[in-house]
Amino acid sequence: MAERKERVMNGVFFISALMSIVSLVLITVFMFTNGVPVMMKYGLDEFLFGTQWRPTATEPQFGLLPMIMGSVYVTIGAAVLGVPIGVLTAIFMAEYCPKWLYKILKPAVSLMASIPSIVYGFFALQFLVPLVRDSIGGNGYSILTAMILLAVMILPTVIELSESALRAVPRTYYNGSVALGATHERALFKVMLPAASSGVLSSIVLGIGRAIGETMAVVLVAGNQPLMPDGFLKGVRTLTTNIVLEMSYASGDHRSALIATGVILFVFILLINSVFLVIKNKGATK
Fold it and tell me: Which stretches in the chain have pLDDT values below 70?
């Protein structure tokens, strides 16, 4: 009887794992079969490097470069602002934070992760947009505002996973380095943090993945002009906002071009994960 239950559960686990793989394959096939033909029709170079997005013109133009650059700028800016703050906060919570304060910070970080993105967007619309407009310049709907918003949104992911990675490092690493004469800070940054680098890198990958894939919050504050980025105080349209703004009325080649936009975004995510996987493997072999 026990063996039968074990075989049944093995089958259930196998089917569950197989469903995730099948789902990924189906999504990939759908996107590429619907998106690649329109790229070939209008030319891959024009699609990737064209600067004009005019899907409803008499002679449609599907140049995605402004949206690609918009996604790159916003994502890199969010990572530059959010990742250092997130990792340093994780170090503070793991090694410096008093117990009474940790009881407040930990639930607060977890709550940040559960807040819907549209709520972040409304917060940025009411607070960040006027703040940027009044203190820095422009109309507030800009690359800079989107960067700050996404930096805040990726903080819970980076903090929670980095803290878990730091706490998973055997304490003997810290005790041994201190016994050899290292200061508390040197032991943390030269021993504990490198030992937790795998988990920290994973948190950065997930954070960047959320930043590049975020839509509803960004659409409220980024300005959404399909133009090449021209300064951090100018508006921008990202790949995700391009899809959500136009899919409701798109048809024909326009709809296929938006699906192709999803293909480009999908490839970006694969490239980011591949780069970090290579870095992670190189670090593991040292």
Answer: 1-2, 280, 282-286
